[in-house]
Amino acid sequence: xxxxxxxxxxxxYVCTRMRVRKAKLIQKDEYQRMLNMSLPEITRIIGETAYxxxxxxxxxxxKGIDLIEVALSWNLAKEYQKILEITPGTLKQFTRSYLRxxxxxxxxxxxxxxxxxxxxxKIKEILIPAGSLGRAMLDKLIAEDSxxxxxxxxxxxxxxxxxxxxxxxxxxxxxxxxxxxxxxRQFYADVIAEAKSGIKGGELYLSFIRLDIDVMNIKTLFRLxxxxxxxDPHEMFIAGGVLTxxxxxRLNVIKDHGEFIDALRMKVKQKTLVSFLDELKEKKKVHDIxxxxxRVQLDQMERMSKLHPFSVHPILVYLEKKKYEVFNLRAxxxxxxxxxxxxxxxxxxVM
Length: 351
Description:
By secondary structure, this protein is an all-alpha fold. The chain has 3 domains: 1-86 and 318-346, Orthogonal Bundle (Topoisomerase I, Chain A, domain 4), CATH 1.10.132; 99-196, V-type ATP synthase subunit C fold (Up-down Bundle); 202-310, V-type ATP synthase subunit C fold. It contains 20 helices and no strands. It has helices at residues 9-23, 28-34, 39-46, 52-58, 64-86, 89-99, 101-115, 120-125, 135-143, 147-153, 160-173, 177-195, 202-226, 233-236, 245-252, 257-267, 271-278, 286-307, 313-337, 342-346. Helix 1 (9-23) packs parallel to helix 19, helix 3 packs antiparallel against helix 19 (313-337) and helix 13 (202-226) runs antiparallel to helix 18. The longest helix is centred in the middle third of the chain and has 25 residues, at 202-226. It starts with 8 loop residues before the first helix and ends in a 5-residue tail after the last helix. Residues 1-6 have low confidence and may be disordered.
């Protein structure tokens, strides 16, 4: 392994490593093959891939779906930590800040698990300690005996002010959804501020983040249209993308589907997103739209990484594609465990 020193060499090295790793991810035809397999067969196949070490290490403690769940979580967290270790300079800073989104997911998973009375072991199985909160801290949070004590244990962490401000409302309405919205709004505001701070490569990082925000806001608009509950669109909106909050609110009140698509299309700048919206003249289920949007986003991220091959883009593309590989394998395993038809499982795969 070459020494990580100054100059362009380390950037070329790590971005090349990302492309090699990405090429080894499970391909569409392999997922199609696994759709026709049983859960034991899928476990065997997973044990022959990059997840072999985790499957082997955990096989004496877990079986079936539990073995797959824990092995996938361990592997993803370990892979993300490896990426941080080999990533130099500002690329490391951007990668670390991007991975902080896992802190939100992990804390919300623990809060929801505690509220629902889920056993500690089951909560731990699905956590991905890839952000700033390590495995030891997450174990400490799981061990706390109340939601309030979990939040108090996070005092001093970046997300604490939002958690402390929103916990009362969350307990009152019996939902962490508004807290979740605010945590992601804070996350993206922090990331954008970091990208705009004048740091080298910040503009390229910002373009990646803005695409992510655009896709999240579009998904939210489609969810709001399908939801029978009245939600305040101001609380659902994430700033920093192509849409302003006024755009978002105006789009949300358009009732006619065709008119809504046309109005959204006029606001969106990414050609791939415009092409995607052109295909939505006929109504589709929200789930199908969200899955399609995710695929469009990954395709656009791939294009960005090819335009800027020695930047943060190839790293972030790999992080996302690796994440969806784990999500796909988890969906396959859960679907087989629940005896769902292959067609139904396929609807939940990003491939």
